[in-house]
Amino acid sequence: MHDKATLRRHLRRQRLNLTATERRSAQAQVCRLLKPLLRRGKNIGMYLASGSELNISAILPDAMRQGCQLYTPYIEPNQRRLWFTPYPAAPQHGHHVLNILQYEGKKRRLEQLDIVLMPLIGIDQRGMRLGQGGGFYDTSLSFGRAQQPLRIGIGFAVQQYDHIPNEAHDQALDAFVCENGITVFSTRARAWLAPYV
Predict the structure, then answer these.
(1) Given a cut of 70, is residue 172 above it in pLDDT?
(2) Which residue of 127, 129, 163, 165 could cross-link 185, Cys pair, CB 3.0 to 4.6 Å?
(3) How far apart are CA 64 and CA 81, in angstroms?
(4) How many CB atoms lie within 10 A of CB 49?
């Protein structure tokens, strides 16, 4: 199982095979692990779960109470580089693009955030992320290399894989959070997350 398409099918099946109880338990544990990152004044990019992705919406009330500014992805037509718009926004301004619920509002680029929480299909021991295949996050992470947010992948433990094939444009993550804990891949993440891992 070496090519990305086969690997995506395999890891999606793994995720879909989780029971409702396993899924709820994992989501609750991941949200507990994320709470220490919700610091006042931080700009945090997050996703609104689609399909069988791990749902982290339970952190929203805590993040807002802590004084974080949350942002969710915004895709412009024919563009791969993501914008992020403030959350929450008025419900009437939300619409779906590529199964992603997105809101209108003052837009920021990914490199203007402090932390970005990313969904994934798979993650390997080096922090290489396997996404949906659209290239939105990898394209966005390739900009502003001198100033990057802390890049954290979110998923279930069953989405971990020994080695995910990568190409020159693929971007490694700083850390991965699943129900089994936080895995750190970079020295920068180690400094940020040292009290919690």
Answers:
(1) yes
(2) 127
(3) 26
(4) 15
Domain 4-70+113-196 CATH class label: alpha beta
Report the DSSP pairing between strands 150-154 and 115-119.
parallel
185 class by beta-carbon count within 10 Å (0-12 exposed, 13-18 middle, 19+ buried): buried
Beta pairing partners, 85: 72
Tell me how far apart the alpha carbons of residues 192 and 21 are, in angstroms, rounded to a whole number: 31
Report the greatest alpha carbon distance in the chain: 45
Give the residue among 150, 134, 158 at the shortest CA–CA distance from 11.
158
- The residues facing 72 across adjacent strands are 85
Distance CA 43, CA 114 (A): 5
For residues 78-98, give the mean pLDDT: 67
CA dist., res. 53 & res. 48, Å (int): 9
pLDDT bracket for residue 8 (50, 70, 90): very high
Q: Give me the pLDDT at residue 101, please.
A: 56
